Amino acid sequence: MNILNSASLQSVRDTMPTNQGGIYARQGFAYQDDVAAKFYIEMLSNENLIEVACETHDDIVLIWKRD
Q1: Cα separations in angstroms, 25 against 10, 34, 46, 47, 53
Q2: CA dihedral sign of residues 45, 50, 55, 58
């Protein structure tokens, strides 16, 4: 059995993150949120845009009414 010596462990507050993937991913998600919000607002004035779906078939899906 391998027992860790607590004196050899560093606090997470004293170490650097191993990667920054979450930071970059969240920036991309924030941009997607802004784009989706723009289309939701557009729905208020454009009767041809009838649905906005996020994270379903793709990042953002727009359903348009066509003649």
Answers
A1: 27, 14, 31, 33, 20
A2: negative
Query: In tens digits, what is the pLDDT along the chain, a chain of 67 residues?
Result: 556 665 677 777 787 766 667 777 777 788 889 999 999 999 999 999 999 999 887 789 999 998 7
Q: Which two tokens stand for residue 5?
A: 């010596």
**Burial class, 6, CB count within 10 angstroms (exposed 0-12 / middle 13-18 / buried 19+):** exposed
Distance CA 10, CA 25 (A): 27
Is the separation of the CB atoms in 22 and 15 below 8 Å?
no
